[in-house]
Specification:
Length: about 150
Amino acid sequence: MFNDIGPLELVTLVVLAVLVFGPEKLPKMIQDVSRTIRKIRDFSESAKEDIRQELGPEFKDFEFEDLNPKTFIRKQLDNEDLGLKEIRNGFDLKKEMAEVTDAVHSRESDGSSSSSSSSSGSGTVDMTKKREKLESAERPPFDADAT
């Protein structure tokens, strides 16, 4: 519950409690707070048991911690039946990125070598024809009724 509180913060809280409540009332306040926390825990445990009984035997393995999304996902990723570990281990992001990078660099080097070798006027005409051919092939049909 108080996992984040360090020793200095704990000492500060104790000193503050002594100043606010006084040394005479402090033991009574600690007893009241601990009794209230105990009652809240008992109430929550009984509510959990009531919910488990109402859900029936098919949910006997149900844990309320599974309602936390992080816990649920961690539990499902550890489940061997789904085969998610094989998928996760089979996907190598570095390898995929290296292949994409190589493909892009080879395409750039092909484009730069063809443009450097086509310093004559006929090379640019060929590239213009290729570009027009690609653009006309990629254009969707025009529907006058749709506009």
